[in-house]
Design a protein that fits this description.
about 290 residues, alpha/beta, Nucleotidyltransferase, domain 5, five-stranded mixed sheet, 12 helices, 5 strands
Amino acid sequence: MKFAFIHAQKAHFKVATMCRLFGVSRQGYYASIRRPPSRQIDKERALRNRIQTLYVESRETYGSPRLLRALHDEGFSVGKRRVERAMRSMGIRAANRRRSRITTTDSPLHRAAENHLARDFTASRPDERWVTDISYIWTGQGWSYLAVILDLFSRGVVGWALDTTLTTRLPLAALDMALRRRHPDHGLLHHSDRGCQYTSAEYRGVLDNLGVTVSMSRKGNCWDNAVAESFFATLKKELVYRRTWATRSELRDAVFEYIEIFYNRLRLHSSIGYKTPAMVERQHALDNAA
């Protein structure tokens, strides 16, 4: 590896100087570049090239656990420490999270529902349990607000909407998308926080007419809706905080591409065994068709 480094840097530093610093001979260096690469060096180069490609394909968001799983799925026999070592030497690291703030507030005029979900974030089939929440994103044209609905079975986003205000219209648009896409049977549980958008008569009326069981987090307890909170933390880490957004239209296009293409169909989710939501739902459909 010392000779490989010297060879890569010879355009910038004298070979003799680098050989002296690394404690190797010039004769050894020149002999090494005349020899064909060893099998081990070829394997290491192939591994690093694949790590780089997977990292880029993940929008530079994957850390060592997801990279390791992706490599194993492709047949690479490699351990976590080796991947971490390669990442450090290549200057690769996952994006960091930032703290978020609360965007929904409860209303004393609205009746809240019981917490029927009770932090059980599992589901036995699609459209058995949905969770939803709202967050904010700054653009050069002002704030945009994003509402999402996630299916706990696959952890995929089944409905989402962007708007410029925090009215009930925003989560209703996300709910409308989810209902049109999924057509859930009776027995669906819908969980949210106690924000006035979700406790409003308009929003509750849609759910009641569909026979949906309404569940809400306890007051001031974000852990009761941890999956939705986690989604927004991931979205902001992997997309929002990585650049500035000049316009709301620019943001909308990016959110569409992130959710519909990357998050639902390409991103490996640790909570579902390092699969994609699309893979989980496709396998469920195949198992039930057999």
